[in-house]
Amino acid sequence: MLIVQLSDSHLCADPAQRYRGVDVQARLSSMMARVAACQPDLVILSGDVSDDGSIASYQRAAEQLDALGCRWTWLPGNHDHPATMAEVRPLETVIHLDGWQIVLLDSWIEGEEGGRLGVDQLARLEAQLAGDTTPTLIVLHHPPVIVEAAWMNEIGLEDRDAFRAILGRYDHVHAVLCGHIHHERTCLQDGVPIMSVPAVAAQFVPDSPDFAVDERAPAGFRLIRLSSNETPGPLLSSRVEYVPD
Ligand SMILES: [Fe+2]
Asked: Does the record's keyword annotation contain Ribonucleoprotein (predicted)?
């Protein structure tokens, strides 16, 4: 099974509106052509689909995703408006596909740039992992780890320690995917890969102490291949496909 993860498209109500100098509408369209060529079974947008939370931005994103002809889903980032998103396409929490469970978490906090899962959602995550031990992939917007871009940690995931503690109690979570930091980054936390993806929109400098855009860094998306226990080789493999303008 092949999954594509896209993140941080930052579309606006006005399709001509640029995000930090990037024509995000045109960028998303050209990336969709590359995504379609990969023939994914599932496409996941991991938040900041919209920059302004407008219904028009979600409708345009959904049109592009529908045109792929495969299953797709999305979850909210700090720039999104979850209720408006859900009017266009309901938010999902768990997807079962090909012997895997994909858990989609909502780290959105109204009016804030940082994220939080909250005690209720963390309890649901724990119950889900305790009750279903099929190989699991978790996706959320905010990285659940400290990153090199110090300013990002100020607006990171508030309850990352509680999230880490839950993951530590189960050995069937094979990776965590996130967005928010607008660049590719992979680390291992307690043996579990935590992977972010380049933004569809502008990229941020990975190791800058303060906010900084890398105007030359290309956009990209992540390909995640998930196998079954019956297939030889790793259960999960992943790489980023860069899409220069
Ligand atoms: Fe973003």
From this structure: no
User: How many CA atoms does the CB half-sphere of 41 hold within 13 Å?
Assistant: 13
CA 142 / ligand 1 centre spacing (Å): 9
Domain count, the chain: 1
Contact between residue 11 and residue 56 where contact means Cβ atoms under 8 Å apart: no
From the CA of 82, how far away is ligand 1's center (Å)?
15
Structural domain for 162, as ranges: 2-243
Tens of pLDDT, residue by residue over 170-179, are 999 999 999 9
Question: How far away, in angstroms, is 129 Cα from ligand 1 center?
Answer: 28
Q: Which residues of 198-213 are buried (b: 16+ CB within 10 A; e: fewer)?
A: bbbbbbbbbeeeeeeb
Tell me the CA–centroid distance for residue 233 and ligand 1, in Å. 34
Helix axes 160-167 and 118-131, enclosed angle (nearest 10): 10
pLDDT of amino acid 44: 98
Distance 231 CA to ligand 1 centre (A): 36
Beta-strand ranges (E) seen in 127-168 are 136-139
The sign of the torsion formed by the CA atoms of 199, 47, 79, 205 equals negative
How far is Cα of residue 146 from the mean position of the Cα atoms in its chain?
17
Which H or E run contains 150? Answer: helix 150-154
Residues near ion ligand 1 (Cβ under 5 Å): 8, 48
CATH number of the domain to which 144 belongs: 3.60.21.10
